[in-house]
Predict the structure.
Amino acid sequence: MNFWRAVIAIVWKDIRAELRTKDIFSSMFVFALLTVILFNFAFELRVPDMKMVVPGIVWVAISFAGTLGLNRAFVIEQDKGSLAGLLLAPVDRAAIYFGKLIGNLLFMFVVEIIILPLVMIFYNLSLLSPEHLLVLLLGTYGFAAVGTVFAAIAVNTRAREVMLPILLFPVLLPVLIAGVKMTGALLDGELLGSLGNWLQIVVVYDVGFTVVAYLTFGYVMEE
Amino acid sequence: MSEAAEAGRAVAPAMIELRKLTKAFGSKAALRGIDLRVAPGESLVIFGPNGAGKTTLIRILASLSRPTSGKVLIGGLDLATHADGIRRYLGVVSHAPLLYDSLTAEENLRFFARLYNLPAPGERIAGLLEQVGLSGRRHDLVRTFSRGMVQRLAIARALLHDPLVLLLDEPDTGLDPQAAEMLHGLLVQLSKTPPAGEGEPARTIVTVTHSIERGLAIADRVVILVGGQIAFEGRTAGLTPASFRPIYDRCVGGDR
């Protein structure tokens, strides 16, 4: 019971702080928006069918903006010494992980909710089907589940802003490739049922890394 | 007697015990075989030059850093295996405030009260804010506070769960003399205040500071740490800043 009480307290604290500063959201949103606009200008006259490039654009925007958000989420805590305050509390380290994970997920979802309609307007495609949203949900969860652990590792390194993407993206490849493939297939009119292998990869990835993160986060946070 | 106090006293004669404690960062040794006991209710002050290992020692006691070898027992429990339980009995004030500057003073305390699972903390929070002189600023964001006010709020945060052991790591760093004096007065008061009300022995306090005057004023015992080793250990009774200064200079002479 105390575990989930601590998780909720950490999520509440992150949302409250973010609503006041908008540090994380503003950097993520501006980056995602610029990505969508820049790719639109780069591709609009050269690509015969936007369906060929939109999956890549969507996942580049999500993953790069997400990396920015993950970095900020831990750097803000570390620079102001508040991370140590959190670690001094008598709560399971895994509760800190889930609290930060849920906060990061919420910020990413908010950015996606704003960016997706813009992608649909700029590229004249629909991404609002339940299948698309499921793929985005699973992919974003996988990204945040792994990203939260790696952001916690990177924040203690000297070149932390550079270190996070270097550490994170090789591990994220399966979920990013699966996300791009499934988004592309759905845009081509395929049904979710025909994407079984990719879907399995993402689900196994999400579950597997959540368990690994749950078991290892305590060691990650120690000096 | 509170549950925390009972747990702390029932299990061991020493509240804090370090056995052959070492810590190395790569090839550099920060602590070299520290043996130390602090009795329940005792106030210990640790002096030493920069790089002596004082902050490393406090971080290990606070369970923020793992020792390379040796044992740390707090309330008779091994910190390596009972860290989550021991944290409940620890309060820490360091030169970093350990607070969220985009939350108000009250929101910060409410957040930490939830983490410490304190039931109905409203009254406790109001009392602590009053005690540290911040009740008038309870709804203000911490980022609008002066350094002295932040440190006073940090003390309120550290005392929120009524800890048996208080670890103070240079709490007056960066404060102007007036704010440092006010903080010192608060710490003197704390060192004499029992954790759970009347009839209880005082808190066990470990203070790291560079101020010999203030350190000796709040401590029962003094340790000088040099090069990760204890160079001097003794009681403060009978010691004045003037009589202690030559001892300190002799101990750290070769390490400056």
Observations:
- The CA atoms of residues 103 and 119 of chain A lie 24 Å apart.
- Chain A has a mean pLDDT of 90.
- Chain A touches chain B through 26 residues (CB under 8 Å).
- Chain A has one domain: 2-221.
